Amino acid sequence: MKTLGLLRLLGAMLLPCLLSTSALAAGWTSQARDAVVRFLKAHPSLEGRDYSVQWTEPRNDLPMCEKQPRVSLQNRDRAWGKLFLTLNCEEGRPWVRPVSVYVMVKGRYLVANQALRKGQALTVADLQWAEGDLTKMGDTLLEDLEQTKNMELVRPIQAQTPLRLNDLKPIAVIKSGDQVRVTLLGKGFAIDTSGQAMSAAALGSSVKVRISDGKIVQGTAVSQGAVEVLID
Predict the structure, then answer these.
(1) CA atoms of 136 and 70, how far apart (whole Å)
(2) Roughly how many angstroms between the first and final C-alpha of the chain, as a whole number?
(3) Do the bridges between strand 172-174 and strand 189-197 make them parallel or antiparallel, or are there none, so unpaired?
(4) Low-confidence ranges of the chain (pLDDT < 50)
(5) Domains with residue ranges and CATH for the chain
């Protein structure tokens, strides 16, 4: 019985060591992990985000470095999803190793709270917030109500469907063929006239207008049915 109790005690003492050895066998050193954690924490795309990291076992065990290795991420604006990183040890015996991790980002995004029709101008009453894993939902989710301001839908949207940037376009304040008010602005003068829009235009967009004397001018849509033309 004493022998059995001693063996159990030794097993309990050795278990943490075995777990530690298993962690090292996965190839990551605490130094390398810390370098990646610091890199992700400083990445602009993760600022203020709720995220977690899933570690992928490197092909070969990572060596130690005299100083923390430098981490780089090539050709990615966002440090989300499956990331292929490079660890670069520049001290002592230099080495470079490719590694990968998966970064899952949780957050909220806008969905339609009812069926919406094509061409409908969005209002706050049409939308509600949902929460989930943003990583698997693409780059164009709407995460800010300001993104819907002065926008209309380019396609029908079903209730509870996430809204994306490519579902929207600026609301046209002028349509092709509309009769519009035209203000010709020059140094020290402003002349009001009328004309016919030759294309549609959203607020602040450029539009061509055939004015009353038959000339075609290009101006800016400044409000519903109104265009300003700057004259040098």
Answers:
(1) 28
(2) 103
(3) unpaired
(4) 1-25
(5) 27-104 (no CATH), 106-170 (3.90.1210.10), 172-230 (2.30.30.760)
